[in-house]
User: Fold this.
Amino acid sequence: MSEPGLQVVVRFPVGVPLDIQGPFLLDAEKRLRASTGLDVRVVKDLMGDDSKLRVRMTIEQRNKL
Assistant:
């Protein structure tokens, strides 16, 4: 597998529809590559669970919920 280039991470707020996000990421990547000549990868930030309590729980504890 080739080495990854520069990674640009985009975080979408809840109100941005999923069907808009993909085309936006692709367009942004194309524009950045064209304007910089660099191997730029535009990716979506996958936000994890922000519950401080759940983050500290073991897998067994989480499965009991």
User: Anything to note?
Assistant: Strands lie at 6-10, 40-44.
